[in-house]
Amino acid sequence: MVTPLANDVWWYDLSGTNAFLVDDDTLTLVDAGMGFHASELIGGLRAAGFELRDLDRILLTHFDMDHVGGLGAFDGTEVTIHVGAADAPLVTGERKPPLSNHKGLIQRLGGPLVSAPDNPVEPVEDGDTVGTFTVYETPGHTPGHVCYVSESLSTAFLGDLVRESGGRLEPSPWVVSYDTAAVERSLRSLVERAPAFEVAAMGHGVPFKREGSRRLADVVTTL
Ligand SMILES: [Zn+2]
C-alpha cells in the first residue's frame, strides 16, 4: 500500500501515478491520485499507522486529474488543500483550463474525472513555507506547478517537473506540458535555489531515496 522512503515519508505507488505521505508533526498528503484511488489513499494512511482524522493538510504539486482526482476522498474532513496560486482556480472550479494550449485541452478532456473539493483551498507562492516545506514555483508542466522541499526531512516533492524513466530523471515532455521552455527555466532555478536533499519524490516513476538533488542537477546538464 505504502512504502517508506525515509523516516516519516511514505510513497503510494498508485497505478501510473504517485502520491506521498509525510509526517513533519503535521500529517500531510502530497498529491491525491485519480478518483478511483480514493480507497487506496485512505488505506495507505492506515498502513502507515494513522487514521483519516489524523490528516491535516494536502499539498498539491499541480492541477491534473491524476494528482487531484482523489481529493473527493477527503470531502467532509478538516483538511486544508495547498496548491500553487496559478492552478488554484482550476482546483476550486472557478476557472477552466484554456482551450488555446494543447495541455489545457488535455485537462479539459479530463474534466469529467475531476470535481471541486469541499475543503478550503489555500493558494501558495514562491518562498511560502508550509510546515517544514518551502514552496518553489516551477511553472511549465502547468502554469501553477510548484515543488515542495523540506531541508529537515531532506526530501523534495517534485511533482511532474521531472519524472523517472530507466533509473534517471527527465524533464516533463512537450505533450503533457504547457510550456517546455518554462519547464527548463524552472529546473535550472530549482537546482540553483533549493537546498541539497536525498529523497527525490516525483509524480511518476520510482522515487529516489538517495542523492536526489545531485540527480536533479544532472538533468540540467542535459538541457
Ligand atoms: Zn502527473
TrEMBL record:
Residues of the Metallo-beta-lactamase domain: 16-204
Pfam families xref list? Lactamase_B (PF00753)
Q: Could you tell me which CDD domains the record lists for this protein?
A: yflN-like_MBL-fold (cd07721)
Know the name of this protein?
A: MBL fold metallo-hydrolase
What is the native source organism of this protein?
Haloarcula salinisoli
Q: What is the lineage of its organism?
A: Archaea, Methanobacteriati, Methanobacteriota, Stenosarchaea group, Halobacteria
